[in-house]
Amino acid sequence: MALTTLLRVAGLPFDVWGESVLRRYGLSTQSWPSWLVDQAKSLALTWVIYTIALLLLFTLTRRFPRYWWTGAAAGGFVLVVFASFVYPLAVEPVFNKFHSLPAGPLRSDLLAMARRDGVPVKDVLVADASRRTTSLNAYVSGFGSTRRIVLYDTLLKSPPAQVESIVGHELGHAKRDDVLWGTLVGALGVAGALCLLYLLTTSPRLLRRAGLDPDATGSGATGRDARSGGGAADPRSIALLLALVTAGTTLAAPVQNLVSRRIEARADAHALNLTRDPATFVSMQHALSVRNISDLDPDAAEYLLWLTHPSGPDRIAMARDWARLHRVQVPPPLR
After folding, report:
1. What is the spatial distance between Cα 224 and Cα 314, in angstroms, rounded to a whole number?
2. How far apart are the first and last CA of the chain?
3. What letters, b where the CB count within 10 A reaches 16 and e where it falls short, cover 220-254?
4. CA 140 to CA 149: how far, in whole Å?
5. 84-88 contacts: CB < 8 A, separation 24 or more?
6. Contact 320/327 with Cβ under 8 angstroms?
7. CA distance linking residue 155 with residue 54, whole number of Å
8. pLDDT tens, 151-176?
9. How far apart are CA 22 and CA 143, in angstroms?
């Protein structure tokens, strides 16, 4: 808790600067007290997640110093799947309030579109995003009984055809079970990372660099090392573990972003196949880019490191290609 709090405090000036930029361009509607409350909630969730994960990990490393990686890999897999399942129910309500989209033509049309697409959707929820932002968005979260499509309340001010275009994209995620497959792939990635973590934390050189005694083990050590477990099982290695996790997630981000962009492009194609309305798709992407003040021409480094979705112009170009391929009227150039 001390380490994660220190990291959050160290990054707070950059977070404040980032929030100031959002306010300057009218993208943030939060008051500073409300923003600070969100930061405190996020930190509290970090405490809970790290405490559970690290307590389980150190219990395994001390009890099974040679084979803890097997239990850790299996446990990490289960925890990721469990967290993905309960996230919509336990975490999302901490930051937003949700209500069902009221009865009316839009709700009826969206549910009818889902039935036509063969996607079981019992409800469409609206998030009170306007209390934080003016940006437009929608998403699908959870899987199984917790799968739901969520619309930002800011999106409801858009023309119904544009809302249907965005929901068609989200139905593409639901039909392909992208959340479920993403969860399983992520769980396998965590399991593999824990196996790699075992190799790294058994490196005598790395342990010495972290200020730990690589020769101390739970069975042969004396004094404080015997009480702590010694070596990688010493709770003083938490800083080393956090550093390795940070390095690993940073290195994995470009690959994750590449996969995400391909999945998002596939969902765009699904929306076009479902609505067969590239003109509305183009107008929606234009509206998203303008309202969210998106970077229309990101360079290669930005694409590699940060973009989880294709850029607005790329998505519009894809819609025009789809129209030509399916002999549908090509949307005219935007002016």
Report:
1. 59
2. 52
3. ebeeebeebbbbbbbeebbebbeebeeeeeeeeee
4. 5
5. 84/142, 84/143, 84/179, 84/183, 84/186, 85/142, 85/143, 85/144, 85/146, 86/146, 87/141, 87/142, 87/146, 88/141, 88/142, 88/146, 88/148
6. no
7. 40
8. 999 999 999 999 999 999 999 999 99
9. 32
Would you call 276 helix, strand, or coil by DSSP? coil
Angle of CA points 170, 174, 176, to nearest 5°: 115
d(CA 145, CA 227): 45
Which tokens go with 4? 């994660």
CB 321 within 8 A of CB 310: no
Cα dist from 77 to 62, 186, 259, whole Å: 20, 8, 20
The SS3 assignment for 301 reads helix
pLDDT in tens, 95-139: 999 999 999 999 999 989 999 999 888 788 999 999 999 998 898
Residues 6+ apart with CB under 8 A from 311: 294, 295, 296, 297, 298, 303
Query: Using CA atoms, how far apart are residues 1 and 51, in angstroms rounded to an integer?
Result: 8
Q: Could you give the CA distance from residue 332 to residue 335 in angstroms, rounded to a whole number?
A: 9
What number of other Cβ atoms are within 10 A of residue 284's Cβ? 27
